């Protein structure tokens, strides 16, 4: 019955999404060709525009399935849903633009496309928020409940119940526990939920009570019981979830994937392991870098000439850094120091009164303008616009022994700017604090997070007192 309701909600979401897209198409058309131009002035007919709208619509629904936009979201935050809506809109628009290019349809109004994309995103987010908020309120008042039976009244089971109790808007109600050590627990330990029997009583309890989901929170020592529990639940058509009792020793929120017939637990859930997220980030990096290079080209030329005129040596400085998957690459900068051997530059920190800096180089480093050539590293694929800052191999070898989890940062591409940097952790600051910020970024990546970091970088300015 629960799955039937979920399937019905999925169908309603698809139908409503399609309806909203058609409405935003008409609204974007009216805004562009009536309100802004007075009289309709377009060489492409309404019917032709509508065909491309259908291409977008089909792409939206198909991509929505691919990125799990239409899967049940009872346990997920609305922010994660907003992120998926933006992803689906971006990818659908990219597909439609690619098709327009392929069919050489060049007369489509760019302003119309901008209205179309913006209105689609805003309206779909808005109506889904209303639906989500309505469902939260209904569930918090006892409607559309799902009843859970917890197997295991130990620390894992009780912690799971605490989480359920904190979120009434999710609409879960714990009926109680099944545990073989009933005498060991007092009522206060069980947080007002009774032990209904032993694990072997599961068949009887499921027959007596309405249960939508059984959560196995037993210790691994009871592993031999798992198979029987799952068989009983599936025989009665009840969903089963397993919480491993070692979850608290994992370094981050784990996630499952399949390797052939084997389920594999990933100890750290990294959003950029998902190919859709990687594609979106890479597409954003390429577009942003190209725009940045074009806009700053006069400044790039000026700096290059000034570097050459103010000190002998090459204009650019390249240095080996450790990047994605611990692979090394050469990172580019405008040269800000006197020419020296790589042994010195690769193993020595820059200090505030470093005699190696040129006068113009000191200005470049203080304003971070020496970093501008790294946009070419982004285009090459060595770096990203946003990510953990890359370090020299010499210091990586030192830090990986002294700083816990230091090497985790190499699971994604390094960046020109990052979460640690916009939080003030640049130059002579704590490496441990930087790594904590880098790991937070890695585990919580969203395209909107990247945009926020870029905006904070611009707003905070490029001058930093710790940048030497």
Automatic annotation (TrEMBL):
<dbReference type="InterPro" id="IPR017473">
    <property type="entry name" value="Undecaprenyl-P_gluc_Ptfrase"/>
</dbReference>
<keyword id="KW-1133">Transmembrane helix</keyword>
<dbReference type="InterPro" id="IPR017475">
    <property type="entry name" value="EPS_sugar_tfrase"/>
</dbReference>
<dbReference type="Pfam" id="PF13727">
    <property type="entry name" value="CoA_binding_3"/>
</dbReference>
<dbReference type="GO" id="GO:0089702">
    <property type="term" value="F:undecaprenyl-phosphate glucose phosphotransferase activity"/>
</dbReference>
<dbReference type="Pfam" id="PF02397">
    <property type="entry name" value="Bac_transf"/>
</dbReference>
<comment type="similarity">
    <text>Belongs to the bacterial sugar transferase family.</text>
</comment>
<feature type="transmembrane region" description="Helical">
    <location>
        <begin position="50"/>
        <end position="70"/>
    </location>
</feature>
<dbReference type="InterPro" id="IPR036291">
    <property type="entry name" value="NAD(P)-bd_dom_sf"/>
</dbReference>
<feature type="transmembrane region" description="Helical">
    <location>
        <begin position="12"/>
        <end position="30"/>
    </location>
</feature>
<keyword id="KW-0472">Membrane</keyword>
<feature type="domain" description="Bacterial sugar transferase">
    <location>
        <begin position="281"/>
        <end position="460"/>
    </location>
</feature>
<dbReference type="InterPro" id="IPR003362">
    <property type="entry name" value="Bact_transf"/>
</dbReference>
<feature type="transmembrane region" description="Helical">
    <location>
        <begin position="82"/>
        <end position="103"/>
    </location>
</feature>
<protein>
    <submittedName>
        <fullName>Undecaprenyl-phosphate glucose phosphotransferase</fullName>
        <ecNumber>2.7.8.31</ecNumber>
    </submittedName>
</protein>
<feature type="transmembrane region" description="Helical">
    <location>
        <begin position="286"/>
        <end position="307"/>
    </location>
</feature>
<keyword id="KW-0812">Transmembrane</keyword>
<feature type="transmembrane region" description="Helical">
    <location>
        <begin position="109"/>
        <end position="130"/>
    </location>
</feature>
<keyword id="KW-0808">Transferase</keyword>
